Amino acid sequence: MPVKIRIPTPLRKLTNNEEIVEVKPGTIGDAISELQGRYPGIKERLIDESGGVRRFVNVYVNEEDIRFLQNQDTTVKDGDEVSIIPAIAGG
Amino acid sequence: MKALKCRECGREYPLAATHVCEFDFGPLEVVYDYASIKKSLTRQVIQSRPQTMWRYRELLPVAKEPTVGCQVGFTPLVKADRLAKRLGIRELWIKNDTVNYPTLSFKDRVVSVALSRARELGFTTVACASTGNLANSVAANAAAAGLRAYVFIPADLEQGKIVNSLVYGAQVIGIKGHYDEVNRLCAEIAGKYGWAFVNVNMRPYYAEGSKSMGFEIAEQLGWRVPQHTVVPMASGSLLTKIQKSYQEFIKLGLVEESPYKVHGSQATGCSPISAAQKAGLDFFKPVKPNTIAKSLAIGTPADGFYALKVMKETGAAADDVTDDEIREGIRLLAECEGIFAETAGGVTVGVAKKLIASGKIPAKDSAVLCITGNGLKTLDAVAGHVGAPREIRPSLREFESLLTADEVAPTVA
User: Does A39 map to a domain?
Assistant: First the structure.
């Protein structure tokens, strides 16, 4: 079972409307590079000029925010699920 | 309304149910035509209208007359002399949204805008991710408007806030997790079912509703911006919108320009924004919340960056208070002013006390505290900490021996 990445609505134009994209195990950084290889342009949507994840982009591995893990160095293995979600308002 | 615009990169979008920039995920904000608003919106025009938040309608993002929550807002601005004395400040005001209509929190402001706009855009089902107050407001206002409502809340919320959503017939979904997890799930659901999620895809409209609290403060103070405003922070949105309301009134010439600071308050058990402000950072580190102030328990505050920016630009401060200080703040406000606030109100009073004591709000100045929700909704947080009634038999002797213990003598008529 590969790693599954859930693509949020605003980025699906880049993935030909694919909601779930499968990538090889590695780190979050590797996964983003693999996405970029297949869907050129997607990386700059997620990563800012300084190389960090954009401040309004939240990335979760199996429901845990990667900022509580090792950010882009967080490892993802077979069967893991990655969600990319815009930050949203209070309630 | 002219368009939606990304706060990060400035790209513009049509006025639809969409909340993030496709390019950088930055939040979208409504753009207004201030030049044309300035021609028609005067103090006299505003004063001639009914006393609701909709008296500032030109500055709220609906295309036509509002259809939901037409009676919301214009809550009392109370001059709090007794509390001012206790906190050691010359002049203090309470903006009392504990009595906002219909669900006793400031959330009725944002919901009336979001649901009015949702109807304009043709939605029949509305939804929200909520720490409680928003769920209550969406449930009630949707019921009154004949809209179907789904509200998503953390499963461990206060009983009062759960019952307060169920009673209106809303579909209430309790999520086993923190608000941030509820939020994440809702972000994934929002795009899928064609619903108007008030704080997800309707957020640009929803968030603007908070400005009405600031407009009212300025008008009720006699058309002036307060020197200091203390605002509770969950996502940080309210703080940014209070500042925006002051800026808009200045821009439209409705108030004179004068220096003002908008200070932020959080609970120590969930203080990503105040911790960053105190450390002088312009970014925050997400946290896992652990506080009795559940309505403020957002560990990944979406508007945290902008709240930090506003505090920096206005030279304001932030601070946070412990659970015990929150309860003390609730009691101070209740005992001095007869206003029973929920935990977020205790946070704001507690932080105001600290900011005054440290001189960050100078004792010679004037301040407004934004009290956003009613204490009857969070009884769990204070029950057991406010004493208990003393029970006696219906006997005059027992009552008199009780008074003797209290050293109260009878007065002769």
Answer: yes
What distance in Å separates the CA atoms of residue B69 and residue B52, rounded to the nearest whole number? 9
User: CA neighbours within 13 Å on the CB side: how many for B213?
Assistant: 34
The parent domain of residue A9 ranges over 3-86
Q: How many residues does chain B have?
A: 413
Give chain A positions within 8 Å (CB) of B20. Answer: 10, 56, 86
* pLDDT, tens digit, 9 for 90 and up, residues B128-180: 999 899 999 999 999 999 999 999 999 998 888 999 999 999 999 999 998 88
pLDDT in tens, B186-235: 988 887 898 999 999 999 999 999 999 999 999 999 999 999 999 999 99
Report how far residue B354's alpha carbon sits from residue B173's, in angstroms, rounded to the nearest whole number. 38
Q: Do B135 and A91 touch (CB under 8 A)?
A: yes
Taking the Cβ of residue A17 and every Cβ of chain B, the question of whether any pair is shorter than 8 Å is answered with no
> Does a structural domain hold residue A49?
yes
- Largest CA-CA distance found in chain A, in angstroms, rounded: 38
What is the model's pTM?
0.94
Fill in the DSSP letter of residue A55: T
Number of folded domains that form chain A: 1
Pairwise CB contact (< 8 Å): A57 & B179 = no
ipTM of the complex: 0.82
Q: Where are the domains of chain B?
A: 77-103+209-382
CATH (residue range B77-103+209-382)? 3.40.50.1100
CATH code, A51? 3.10.20.30
Any bridge partners for residue A86, and if so which?
Answer: A57
Q: Residue for token digits 């939020």?
A: B183
pLDDT surpassing 80 at residue B372: yes
Contact of B34 with B15, CB cutoff 8 Å: no
How far is the C-alpha of A44 from the C-alpha of A52, rounded, in Å? 10
